[in-house]
Automatic annotation (TrEMBL):
Coiled coil: none
Family: Belongs to the KHG/KDPG aldolase family.
Pathway: Carbohydrate acid metabolism
Protein name as it appears in the record: KDPG and KHG aldolase
Organism classification: Bacteria, Pseudomonadati, Bacteroidota, Bacteroidia, Bacteroidales
InterPro entries for the chain: Aldlse_KDPG_KHG (IPR000887), Aldolase_TIM (IPR013785)
Length: 223
């Protein structure tokens, strides 16, 4: 069962403005990355369903995070079908994210009041997802469908929208400022936040510092 309700999830996404996206098959690595992000100010984290037995790792992370990162809202990403969404919700996912919009996932999440953020690449997809009860829609791949200008343009006719963007987001000042100024609710960030060499070197402090830096740029852009 989700530890945080839908309103808490959305509020945390809005307040911090950034959702790290990560997967590793090693449980200890995942714990260290999550802890590093948490110490850097992150409060919403997306664990992606991208490897064998990923759900088993996620279940262990949920139990661990309850003690070690009590304010962390942990969700599952790369969820493309309803059975997988149900599995992760049962394991304690506080939100579900997908690269695409699958209308069969929405009622599974809605029944438990768990936010479902599907990947959308057009005004029609965003509108259809909202009609299905998706309060936060993810523009993906954000860099390919038009970048910050796409977000600005869709917020004209769909000005009530809560948009998360993933893809072509990096933790540098200019990039984050452009996305925030476009009107996004938050940004999702993966490989740019977790370079392979940093993970290989187990340089967790570098991740903490980079998260704190990125969150600072987001706060500055909003002001």
């Amino acid at each position: 069962m989700a530890k945080f309700n839908k309103m808490q999830v959305m509020q945390a996404m809005k307040e911090t403005g950034m959702v790290p996206v990560f997967f590793n098959s090693d449980l200890d690595t995942c714990k260290n990355v999550i802890k590093a992000c948490y110490e850097g100010g992150v409060r919403v984290f997306e664990f992606t369903n991208r490897g064998d037995f990923a759900h088993e790792i996620f279940g262990e992370l949920v139990k661990w995070a309850t003690k070690e990162c009590p304010e962390l809202i942990l969700g599952a990403g790369t969820v493309i079908d309803a059975p997988t969404a149900a599995l992760y919700i049962q394991l304690g996912a506080n939100f579900i994210v997908g690269p695409n919009f699958n209308p069969e996932i929405a009622p599974v999440c809605n029944r438990r009041l768990v936010p479902y953020s599907p990947g959308c690449g057009s005004v029609s997809e965003i509108s259809n997802a909202q009609a299905a009860g998706c309060d936060v829609t993810k523009v993906f791949p954000a860099g390919n469908v038009g970048g910050p200008s796409f977000v600005k343009n869709i917020l004209g006719p769909l000005r009530w929208s809560n948009v998360m963007v993933t893809g072509a987001v990096s933790p540098d000042k200019d990039n984050l400022t452009e996305w925030i100024k476009s009107g996004v609710l938050c940004v999702g960030m993966g490989s740019k936040l977790f370079p392979k060499e940093v993970i290989a070197a187990r340089n967790w402090q570098a991740i903490t510092d980079k998260c704190a830096e990125a969150l600072g740029y987001i706060k500055e852009a909003r002001s």
